[in-house]
Amino acid sequence: xxxxxxxxxxxxxxxxxxxxxxxxxxxxxxxxxxxxxxxxxxxxxxxxxxxxxxxxxxxxxxxxxxxxxxxxxxxxxxxxxxxxxxxxxxxxxxxxxxxxxxxxxxxxxxxxxxxxxxxxxxxxxxxxxxxxxxxxx
Length: 137
Prior knowledge:
- Residues 21-113 form the MaoC-like domain.
- Pfam families: MaoC_dehydratas.
- InterPro entries: HotDog_dom_sf (IPR029069), MaoC-like_dom (IPR002539).
- By secondary structure, the chain is α+β, with helices and mostly antiparallel strands.
- It has helices at 24-34, 44-49, 59-71, and strands spanning 17-18, 79-86, 97-108, 111-121, 127-136.
- A five-stranded antiparallel sheet has the order 1-3-4-5-2, with helices on one face.
- The model has no long low-confidence stretch (mean pLDDT 95).
C-alpha cells in the first residue's frame, strides 16, 4: 500500500511495531553490528558496579526500532527528519511496542510533508524513547 498525502489525516496512526522481549542475545548482536561494545550493555558485573540491576539496551538500538516502525510505513528515501529523546531505560525482558501518529501536514521545499510523533514504550506503557519524524509524501 502506498501512502498518499491526500488520504492522510492528522491523527492517523501507523501500524504498531511489537518486538519480542529484549534479551542478551539481541544486545550482543547489536553490539557486534554497531561496534558499540559499552560494557554496561553486555557485562552484567560491570552494569551492577555501575548501579544497575542488569545490562540494558543501547539507546541507538531503541532508535533503530523506531526507524523500523517508520520505514515499514513509508520508504526510507522519503524520510526528511528523524530525531528522538531517550526518556527511560529499556531493560532485559521489556517487551517494546513502537507507535506513531500524524500530527501535521504541510508543504516545505516544494514537497508535501507530514510530521509524526513517535515513541517506544515497554509493556507497562512507560515511554522509553520519544521523538518525531518528517516524511515527504
